[in-house]
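Hey forum,

I'm writing up a methods section and want to include a predicted complex as supplementary material. The small molecule is zinc ion. I've pasted the protein sequence and the SMILES. Can someone with a working setup run it? I'll credit the forum in the acknowledgements.
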Amino acid sequence: MADITKACRDIKELSPLAQIACNLFMAECKKAGLEVLITETYRSQERQNWLYEQGRTRAGNIVTWTKQSNHTGRMAWDICKNVRGQEYSDATFFAKCGEIANKLGITWGGTWSTPDKPHFEINKSWKAQVVEDDEVVEKDKIIVDGKEFTVELIRKDGTTYIKTRDIAEVLGLKVGSKGKIPVLDKK
Ligand SMILES: [Zn+2]
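Reply by user p_vandermeer:
Happy to help. Structure tokens for the complex are below, copy them as they are.
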């Protein structure tokens, strides 16, 4: 039998559905530059009971409020920040991870009335969702008639979108509007 004092960190020990959710979550966190380390996935009931005893019938701080955990059902995983000395101290890190989980329809323990910030879980009705990348407005140069201009733009699917006000500026036009419609006129 597995050592009940040791946490299992293997994503493959989660249910097939939770594996998809966890891998998606990890990929999105990585994209966002968050250094996430999985600290526990599946937990045997024996280990859950053993953890429950901590701070109750065994010395130590209380680490769990329940004997019924979604870890034992292979639907939950715990994380920490993969930076030595900052594993649990960076509230912003956990909030950002929670935001990503929320976008993916994954429950973050940080939203509970007794928050459990390192904890993430799904239920059986979870469905994989595609996260749309937030379009990033960048400042970059364009050249018009040999002259360089700096404009604000968004690159998406091979197309560059330039801010109307900036393109007006570049072309020497004045910009107005008719309701929601931008109007460009000769100065
Ligand atoms: Zn947990």
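Some notes you might quote in the supplement: The longest helix spans residues 16-31. The longest strand covers residues 147-156.
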